[in-house]
Amino acid sequence: MAIPLRIDFVSDVACPWCVIGLRSLMKALDELGDEVEAEIVFQPFELNPDMPPEGQNTFEHVQAKYGSTPEKSALSREALRESGEALGFAFGYGPDSRIWNTFDAHRLLHWAHGEGRQHALKEALFVANFTDGLSISDNEVLVRAAASAGLDARRARSVLVSGQFADEVRKDEATWRDRGIQAVPSIVFEERWMIQGGQPSEMFVQAIRQVIAQKAAAG
Hints:
Elements: E1 3-11, H1 16-32, E2 36-44, E3 56-57, H2 58-66, H3 70-86, E4 98-99, H4 103-114, H5 118-131, H6 139-148, H7 153-162, H8 166-178, E5 186-189, E6 193-196, H9 201-218
């Protein structure tokens, strides 16, 4: 019988390694099959909460924030492309790629959780941002992503225009910061065990089997 497993996936839509982490996690869950019945909840984390709506060139941002050289940035982008390709995701980095403010995207994801479409929206936002190179701080882009995820476009637009769920997102962000989360992706199992980073699926399989074994032993 499948053992229920709560997974809090703390991440940002602007984080490319969160794409890798999510795809690896889903691959691991596919491999585990009926060993586990997972409930994934996407939790908000903003890598750049002060990012203006117009965003910033990705390469300029990485250089300014992390001191990365063009050569190191190129190697990192190539590693992301290769990892993404192996997991069925296409990164479309180019010289005009930008990093955007993601607060409204997190508000929409909060709403989507209640609609049972949070995972689908998360994937749609990753594609809009990293594959299509669209502004995920633009309401029209967000509405189209919501519609492609099976959500009601009019309701999505209403959420965005009204500022709904802003307080809830800020509260959730504060909760995870208070729990010590400083980097993403952070994948938390049963609110007790955590894996960070875009780890390979094999590591997730091993970790999940350890978690469910401990759950089963505890009765």
